[in-house]
Write a structure and sequence with these properties.
- The structure is a homodimer of 310-residue chains.
- The first copy, chain A, is α/β, with parallel strands linked by helices and 310 residues long.
- Chain A has 12 helices and 13 strands.
- In chain A, the strands form 2 sheets. In chain A, strands 5-4-1-8-9-10-11-12-13 form a 9-stranded mixed sheet, sandwiched between helices.
- In chain A, strand 6 and strand 7 form a beta hairpin.
- In chain A, helix 4 packs parallel to helix 6 and helix 9 packs across helix 10.
- The longest helix of chain A is centred in the C-terminal third of the chain and has 18 residues.
- Chain A is globular, with a radius of gyration of 19 Å.
- Chain A starts with a strand and ends in a 13-residue tail after the last helix.
- The interface between A and B is large, with 63 and 63 residues.
Chain lengths: 310, 310
């Protein structure tokens, strides 16, 4: 199968308690495609400026990612994001967001990108997400991310986009905000009533939960003693999740989605070990397989029968 | 084996978005012992006042709980707690705490209670917890809870108590506060360096994590569409956890603790379905066994090998 992702391609400046980088490759489509590249052919769609050069393309090409739908806006500058994480890495402040070439981005997909079996709409304006989805009528599984900003200023458009996809992947706080339902099971049921068959609630350091018509599934985040930079964790999760579905031979049912949750969790855990894309650039398939085994081991228990007293 | 718990016995007044109760049986030792009673003989130690009558004793006796170490303080009133939960049930405000007979409580354990194989020190002043532990030198596994108040006003005493137990069961925010380490793996390692072999981080609606020298284990909370009253969830967790260890035939190792985590999660999930002890009073062994199976199902994935691309 093949996989297309539309989203941001960026330079990030990040400070965490464990270091800082003033300019590194980032963006949702980048983090997503690096993670997904371990599973299947990935095409990345998004705009860049003149400052996006050979070293940045090389990071993507080294992982076999197809960049022919990266749109160069001559005279423009690449999207820039700057943030600072607190001692508690769950908290961060955005210091600066320069949309730059992203401000007038209109996604144009090539024939190859339109022919994708799976499509991921990373966090961009929901009208744009819908335009992309409409260009890929043959995709058999479409998933999307979003953020609190769009829930606040483009709620109706966001709901319209959600109606057109198979799977919504959101932070659990955003699912609650979107639906007004503080109970996760109720919030996911509401979103599924709009159209999607699957809802994934990202819960940061606590992991992620999957809710479909066939039931519930949840995994903790992989425990790490040293997290250097959480930026891109959610997109790496989505990349592992969608990548494993693209590589999956058969129906995308609840069982396939459970395995996808495990790969998503695994890829996200590598991404946060170092700054930006640093860890992903030298990640190997063997490391992924070993950590997936570890993840299974640390979440599995034998329901050893205990004689219960009524 | 046998199991002794020392903690509060209370009347609670609770308001949640789903109803209210102006006076119901509560307290950490009560929630704990009801959950643990499904596994083994339980003895409960704690003070009550003249207002604690036959209906309250009946709730405990109906589950076979030994109340002979409940100390009646003549002329006194039972501990009273009142709280109000927000629409988001993870947030609550304490409206009133009347220590009453708890103010001058000095735990005195009978021979039978001292002979317990397992001992749980529910959240009370850490000096008192240590006095209790010293009365049970033969206990083969001692676990404890605590709270932010003691971390703030009795830190050194709390650490001294922790040094004397096998297992610490705390909210994850409290583990971070106690150690000053925002990373859970680091925080648990620090606590284990003081003496305990096991640390359990309670994560509310996200579940719980276990950290021992043998590794990490985590489970999500059981997903519930309707939670009426979260009061006592942590103590019910501890009751299921310790109960299953008491009923466990063999060494209390990482594998036994994993199963204990599953029973803790299961018992906590029933407790929150209704107000106070209402659900636990009519809970059955069959319901527990069925939910444990469900919990296993919703956390298990098959590591279906996907061909990864290096």
């Amino acid at each position: 199968m093949s996989l297309t992702v539309v989203g941001s391609i960026a330079f990030d400046a990040v400070t965490t308690p464990y270091g800082e980088r003033s300019r590194m490759l980032g963006g949702s489509a980048v983090h997503f495609s690096l993670a997904a590249s371990f599973f299947d052919a990935v095409r990345v769609v998004g705009p860049v400026g003149d400052d996006f050069g050979a070293p940045e393309y090389a990071v993507l090409h080294d992982r076999g990612i197809d960049t022919s739908d990266i749109e160069l806006v001559a005279g423009g500058k690449t999207f820039f994001w700057s943030g600072r994480y607190h001692e508690d890495l769950n908290r961060r402040d955005t210091l600066r967001t320069d949309l730059n070439v992203f401000e007038h981005f209109e996604p144009k997909l090539s024939e190859d990108s339109r022919a994708a079996d799976l499509l991921f709409l990373a966090n961009i304006q929901p009208d744009l997400q819908r335009q992309v989805a409409e260009q890929c009528p043959g995709a058999r599984f479409v998933a999307m991310d979003s953020m609190n900003l769009w829930i606040e200023i483009a709620h109706d458009s966001l709901v319209e986009t959600i109606q057109a996809v198979d799977c919504v992947i959101l932070n659990d706080a955003e699912l609650r905000q979107l639906t007004g339902k503080p109970n996760l099971v109720q919030a996911a049921r509401e979103v599924r009533s709009w159209g999607p068959t699957a809802v994934v609630a990202k819960q940061g350091e606590y992991g992620a939960a999957l809710l479909t018509g066939e039931g519930f599934f949840a995994l903790p985040a992989f425990p790490l003693e040293h997290v250097q930079d959480p930026t891109g964790a959610g997109d790496s999760f989505a990349g592992g999740f969608m990548g494993s579905l693209a590589a999956h031979d058969g129906e995308i049912d609840h069982d396939a989605l459970r395995v996808a949750m495990a790969y998503g969790t695994t890829l996200a855990s590598f991404n946060v070990e170092e700054f930006g894309t640093e860890r992903m650039q030298r990640l190997t398939a063997d490391e992924i397989a070993a950590r997936l085994d570890d993840l299974q081991r640390i979440t599995r228990f034998d329901a050893a029968p205990v004689a219960l007293r009524d």
